[in-house]
């Protein structure tokens, strides 16, 4: 098991986002506006889904890494800290998924 975490990747993404677009792919994506990194995130998510359906384990691992990276780029571009997303995930774990979905349907 690796000790590298999503928080580690987030630090790298945010560091690179603060550099010149001529020096960093991350900065270049963010400088292009929110549509560019969002489009890349969508493309990578579709590729991950295809790999999952095809049973392509290596492809799914690779595409999942791309999804996580591009999600963090989208969050950085929007000024949303990873901690906000993690807090939302933590909040959601207070109850099971089916119960949480049922609670959303009640007025």
Q: β content, as a range? A: under 5%
CATH C-level class is Mainly Alpha
Write down the overall mean pLDDT: 94
Q: Could you give me the name of the CATH homologous superfamily?
A: MazG-like
- The oligomeric state is single chain
Report helical residue fraction: over 70%
Terminal residue distance: 44 Å
Figure out the total of helices.
6
Main β-sheet description: none
Q: Which structural category do the helix and sheet elements fall into?
A: mainly alpha
Care to count the β-strands? 0
Low-confidence stretches: none
Q: What is the structure about, briefly put?
A:
With 107 residues, this protein is mostly helical. The chain has six helices and no strands.
Mind explaining what this structure looks like?
The protein is mostly helical and 107 residues long. It has one domain: MazG-like (Helix Hairpins, Orthogonal Bundle), CATH 1.10.287.1080. It has 6 helices and no strands. The longest helix has 22 residues, at 57-78. The model has no long low-confidence stretch (mean pLDDT 94).
Secondary-structure blueprint:
Elements: H1 6-17, H2 25-31, H3 35-54, H4 57-78, H5 82-92, H6 97-105
Summary tags:
single chain, 107 residues, Helix Hairpins
